[in-house]
C-alpha cells in the first residue's frame, strides 16, 4: 500500500480552504433533535450500571426492563455510575491525542496493511477500496484476548491495558442484563459466545477541523460488528444515530459511556434487538477525538441465533452462522455501506 497523507497533516496546512474532490460526500442533511421526535416525549435511554450490579431486586428488575427497551427501540443507550474512574477515561483520551500528535514517520510504523493486523494506523475506512474518503484518521488496536499496544507515546501501553480491562468488566455486566432481558439465563450469551475469550478492539478516531464540513463526512452511516461498542469522546459533538428513520444528534452526559448494539447482538437475538446505524460528522472549529471499544464474541465463535430464542424450533432462524473473525474480515475488507455485511448472513 502506498504511503497515505493523513487528514491531520492535510488539516494542519494553513492554506487549506477547500477539501479535495475525493473527500466530497453526499450527506443527508436532515438532522433532528429529540425535542422534535414524537412530540418531544422520547429521550435517549440511560442505564444506571450501579443498580444493575448492586441495586435492590426491584431496582435491578427495572434496569433490565430499561435495557430491553433500549435494545429494542433504540439500539443505543448511555451508561452512568459504571465505576470506571473519570481520571482513567481522561488519560485514555489524552494518550490517544498524544499518539495522533506523533510525527508522521513515527505513526507510519503502524501503517494499516491488513484488516486483521493487531495494530493499525490509517485514514478514511479502508483507503485501498474507498471511492470517497472520510475526514478521519484512526488507530485500531486488538487488546483482547491477546493484548497489543503501540510502544509510543510514553505510557500509552499502561493506560490502554487498564482502560480495556475496565471496559470489559462493564460489558460483561451489561451482557448479563441483556441476556436476562431476552428471558435467558444471565450467563447465556457469555457461554454461547465464549466471552472470556472475547475479541476486543479499541479504535481511536481523530476528526480535525474541516474547511467545508457540509461537504465532508467523518464516518458514513454504518453498523458495528460485535455485540456492544463502548464510546467516549473529548466533548466535541459529532455523533449521530438513526432513530425511527431520522438522524438524531447525540451528546453524552459527563463521564458516561455511549453504548450501541452491534450486528452480532442482532444475530444472536434473532433480530429482536437490531444493530443501530450511526455516523460521525465534522466541524470547522475544533478537533473531535472519540474512542470506540468494540466487544465481540471469541474470534473462533460461530455466531447464530441463540437456540433458546427459537422456541424449540417453532421460530425459524433469521441468520446463518458465521465465524466471528470471518465476519470481521469480510466487513473490514470492503467498502463501508450501512448494514450491507449483515445482509449477507440474513436468511
Automatic annotation (TrEMBL):
Q: Which residues form the Fe2OG dioxygenase domain?
A: 197-297
> Gene3D superfamilies in the record, alphabetically?
B-lactam Antibiotic, Isopenicillin N Synthase, Chain (2.60.120.330)
Q: Does the keyword Metal-binding apply?
A: yes
Q: Which UniProt keywords apply?
A: Iron, Metal-binding, Oxidoreductase
Position of the signal peptide: none
InterPro entries named among the record's database cross-references: DIOX_N (IPR026992), IPNS-like_FE2OG_OXY (IPR044861), IPNS-like_sf (IPR027443), Oxoglu/Fe-dep_dioxygenase_dom (IPR005123), Plant_2OG-oxidoreductases (IPR050295)
- A single GO molecular function term of this UniProt record: metal ion binding
Source species, domain of life: Eukaryota
- Which family does the record assign? Belongs to the iron/ascorbate-dependent oxidoreductase family.
Name by which UniProt lists this protein: Fe2OG dioxygenase domain-containing protein
Give the originating organism: Trapa natans
